[in-house]
Write a structure and sequence with these properties.
Two copies of one chain form a homodimer. Chain A is built from ten helices and eleven strands. With about 230 residues, the first copy, chain A, is an alpha+beta fold. Chain A binds a DNA duplex (30 and 30 nucleotides) through helix 4.
DNA sequence: CGCATGCTTCGGCCGCGGCCGAACTGTGCG
DNA sequence: CGCACAGTTCGGCCGCGGCCGAAGCATGCG
């Protein structure tokens, strides 16, 4: 009865070409701005705004303000799974993942850079996702925490976990500019970044926020986090 | 691009309350008539007809004529999976599976009966599904086949697989009246039915198409097919 | 401060599509 | 053959919702 109505409502949201286009563009887990989504859907910003509001209200999307931008992303893996299931029935091959050029044009910046006091770019995101996958940190939209396993790892990595003091913001997710996924910020992000510099794994590029991953860094990252930047 | 359009089209089909209602009613794998589907959706027959035609054209439903009835069912497990994924996102609990009374009112008939020369009812459907699950038979909409493993099983069960003669219709699915799922018909269905009588597993109920599963039958069916009629 | 930018809200246009009544096909039954 | 019943097709009504132009906030920058 009402479950039918709820199902229909959700499906109807996906059932509009413009909205389907936007959802599809978010399938890789990145977060995009309203303007970008309007562009990929081929509609004006005001129309997109309405769609995005409805998608968020229905719990399909999550929104995150950052300055004067608003980043939208799929609200949960369940949404992605649903979209995949629909595409399967629709007989549509998953989209060719067109390499839309977003973020900084500089390849080195996209690969690795600092964001204030922590690491960003593919490197920063890879570290965050590796630690999350291994259960060392738990990331939520509005915060995060280091698990006991994470404490152990950090100690072994040469980072002394914070005493009770400014615990609040110690482990915090931050939306990555170029990757549009979360990397680690807060005290933890800063400590990881500092330790990587200390170990000689990364070096600053003069006059730029970009950092260079050294040979030693590639080996160390592979061993410590299982990361392969490619 | 076009994959977005295909996805939107499919989702839009589910996105109508009436169609969602019908699809939901088919989630258990049974096949229902257009009239029944119209009834559960609370719309007239002519409106339902239009919906069903569109759903079939899009490959969400499969239709099967039987006399002057037209039975509709989900076209594939992928469709069921999609619907489940949508319901999950919609936060709707799967419908309480309201026990709609369909088919013959006689409980014995629903449990087990003969259909011409083969077994039907919960028993017939259970045998067909058990054999399909074990890879002994392969059932398609318009025919079926006994696999090598199935040949072995049948030999052990005391059935001599047909010689090349009337092979065509030896293994054939037949839509079950009360269960609205397929049971086995054709030469195979007849042979299985005959053997069950021969083994004393089932007995005819006088003046009725219903058959009774004996104590020996319950044990035998459990052992031979892993069936538990409950 | 004022301007530019990103996004939202409002108002109105318009077309798609769901709905039903009525009429038609086709199957089964006596 | 005529009747009953399941299902479809046709035609027309109507409302929901997508779309954009214009105007209204918010944030950031010089």
């Amino acid at each position: 009865m009402s479950s039918n109505a709820a199902m229909a409502e959700t499906a109807a949201l996906v059932g509009d070409p413009a909205r389907a286009c936007m959802l599809n563009a978010l399938m890789d887990g990145r977060a995009l701005t309203a303007g970008e989504l309007a562009s990929v859907a081929g509609i004006t910003a005001q129309t997109a705004s309405g769609h995005l509001a409805r998608l968020s209200a229905a719990g399909l999307l999550a929104m995150e303000r950052q300055g004067r931008h608003r980043y939208h992303r799929l609200a949960s893996p369940a949404v992605a799974r649903m979209l995949e299931a629909i595409m399967q029935v629709a007989g549509a091959a998953p989209p060719p993942a067109l390499p839309r050029r977003i973020g900084p044009a500089d390849a080195a910046m996209r690969r690795a850079r600092t964001c204030y006091d922590h690491l960003a770019g593919r490197l920063g995101v890879a570290i965050a996702e590796a630690m999350a996958a291994r259960g060392q940190v738990e990331l939520a939209t509005d915060g995060g925490a280091v698990t006991p396993a994470g404490q152990d790892f950090l100690t072994g990595f040469g980072i002394i976990p914070e005493p009770g003091g400014s615990r609040r913001a110690f482990c915090r997710p931050c939306l990555d500019w170029s990757e549009r996924r979360h990397h680690l910020a807060g005290g933890l992000g800063a400590a990881l970044c500092a330790r990587c510099f200390e170990l000689g794994w990364v070096k600053r590029v003069p006059q730029s926020r970009a950092v260079l991953v050294t040979r030693a860094g590639e080996a160390g990252l592979r061993q410590a986090f299982g990361i392969e930047l490619g």
